[in-house]
Amino acid sequence: MQGQMQAQPLLISTLLTHAERHHGSQEVVSRRVEGDIHRTTYAELASRSRQLAKALAALGVQTGTRVGTIAWNGYRHLELYYAVSGSGAVLHTLNPRLHADQVVWIADHAQDHVLCFDKTFLPLVEAVASRLATVKHFVLMADREHMPTQTAIPNLLCYEDLVSSQNDAYTWPQFDESSASSLCYTSGTTGHPKGVLYSHRSTVLHTFASALPDALNLSARDVVLPVVPMFHVNAWGLPYSACMVGAKLVLPGPGLDGASLYELFEAEGVTVSAGVPTVWQGLLGHVQSKGLRFSTMTRTIIGGSACPPAMLDTFEDTYGVQVIHAWGMTELSPIGTVGILKGHQQALPKADQRAIQSKQGRGVYGIDMKIVDAEGAELPWDGKVSGELMVRGHWVVNQYLKGDTSPLVDGWFPTGDVATIDADGFMQITDRAKDVIKSGGEWIGSIDLENIAMAHPAVAMAACIAAKHAKWDERPLLVVMKKPGAEVSKEELLAFYDGKIAKWWTPDDVVFVDSMPLGATGKMLKHRLRDLYQDHLQAQPACAPGTPVSA
Ligand code: ADP
Prior knowledge:
Blueprint: H1 13-22, E1 27-31, E2 37-41, H2 42-58, E3 66-70, H3 75-86, E4 90-93, H4 100-110, E5 112-117, H5 122-128, E6 137-140, E7 157-158, H6 159-164, E8 180-186, E9 194-199, H7 200-211, E10 223-226, H8 233-236, H9 238-245, E11 248-251, H10 258-268, E12 272-275, H11 277-290, E13 299-302, H12 309-318, E14 322-328, E15 335-338, H13 350-357, E16 361-363, E17 367-372, E18 387-393, E19 413-421, E20 426-432, E21 437-439, E22 442-444, H14 446-454, E23 459-469, E24 473-482, H15 490-495, E25 509-512, H16 526-533
Parallel strand pairs: 1-11, 3-4, 3-5, 4-8, 5-6, 6-7, 10-11, 10-12, 12-13, 13-14, 24-25
Antiparallel strand pairs: 1-2, 8-9, 14-15, 15-16, 16-20, 17-18, 18-19, 19-20, 21-22, 23-24
The protein binds adenosine-5'-diphosphate (ADP).
């Protein structure tokens, strides 16, 4: 017997049409690359998104066509989010912090047809344009006044010209909710990055769940400022959930330093924000050094890397800002667990509450999880035994783009994180089985770094591991065994990376060893090296995430 309720497909366009009809006058405020503050509303955003959808169709964008973006958090990027996915095409957000060669590889793998980018990234796009074989149209996200007089990009299109070339008489198409909506690449633990292709259904369900009170707790009374970039796992879904709940949206553009963020928080009455610990360190540093207070912010979502307990204490005790600690990954678009206390835990002594909050949290509805031992057997939820974290659910990857083998094990996705789960269902990450390094919220591929070191004539074996770092959470540390009789200095090895990778990927230091720890199959045991050297780094890196892409 069938239910007799309406069956409407869960489409991303419905989030925008809801915001337009029910919260049409709600504001969207953006700090622009042009330097000013821009204000619009959901009604205007919806209208311009329809114009843009028509303009993209005129450029040959059809159902399933990939449209790439390289852009900050801003209203034009938001229009692309809705115009591209809403019209049935696939939004592919590229990370500008990657090396030019990786940008080329990813755009090529995704087969992007159009590439839209902020003016900040004009030099990057000019450098790679001739190598982007599939890209037929380049669009600068600016008005006519801000178009460059000269550029190496042939037939560079102006975004505002495209939008104004169309009226907004356009009806969002209806199609299967399992159709692809957007594409994000994650750092591959081996080899190249991997594309995770979200669907309309997975995105809308993620949006529902992420807005719940025990998740990001969003409402029409909120003013939301996503610091997490829209080029990084869809800014944790906030561009969608803000529309779903009708929250005011404040988009910080390139201004990610403490002073610029604080100014926007106060001027726009921001109540909730979201970002990686590194960003909050910058903001707290600014607020503390100037003796400032947050007058409207009530909570902040921290994820991407573990939130340090000291940061939790400072936000909650000194500034009265609730910390919502969340865990997720690109393969989950991204939210998996959120660390909000249960009722009975609120009566616990403060220190016990903090210990629970610094865990990565409990699974939101829609995500199931378990921990398993090396043989795949499920382990108990006792908060003590750790094993690899496996997840499954409505917004968990099933297959990577163009992947020929399934990443799943018995229907579960192995996260590469090692964790405990306690009796209340709070998951805590204790280690990482995957070898990638996470610095300031961005991945650094250890294999790329090792391959480069191995190409040096004096190097016999090289391993690159994540070393703890006070500012960037983790930085790469290169461990090298030299060839017998060969000589090479740390400086020579580090200089060997110049031009081969993004500068901030360069290891912070080199440790020379006489032998490498090897496993039974001859593989290097990186966890042994991590145990030995993870506390090795004291100094700040010469260059770190964010530096190559300042506005
Ligand atoms: P994102 O950075 O948006 O969470 P990524 O796919 O880039 O997504 O990174 C996912 C990985 O980041 C996780 O598998 C985990 O290793 C790490 N991670 C994410 N959130 C946390 C957290 N709160 N605590 C510790 N590690 C985290």
